[in-house]
Amino acid sequence: MAESKTILIAEDSSVILNLTKKILELQKYKILTAKNGGEVIKQVENNKIDAILMDLNIPVKSGMDCTREIRAHENKEIANIPIIAVTGNANNYSMEDFKEAGINDYLPKPLDFDALVLTVKKHTAQ
Length: 126
Description:
Layout: E1 6-10, H1 14-26, E2 30-34, H2 37-46, E3 51-55, H3 63-71, H4 76-79, E4 83-87, H5 95-101, E5 105-108, H6 113-124
Parallel strand pairs: 1-2, 1-3, 3-4, 4-5
Helix pairs in contact: 2-3
């Protein structure tokens, strides 16, 4: 069997973080977490990550700022990690804003866990 993919969940709500983590662990993903934008950057530089679930409203650095920073990273492997935006107020953003920042996909809150699994699978399939 292929080695499990690593997903970074950037989310400041413990409830959403723990639920999302459990759902993805049931799908055999390895999960790393970050509670703020500073931790996101540390995680991507210190671990091989296959996809990021990025809450756009996290402290320290917003999800959009983190995405831009990752996309500008000199390490191409890091710069090309699929990033899935997760937000409860997507109305504040257009698909153009997401594309401009380098976001690959988007999931609205409250999370639909079937959509979550399908979207993560889509971006981590070999």
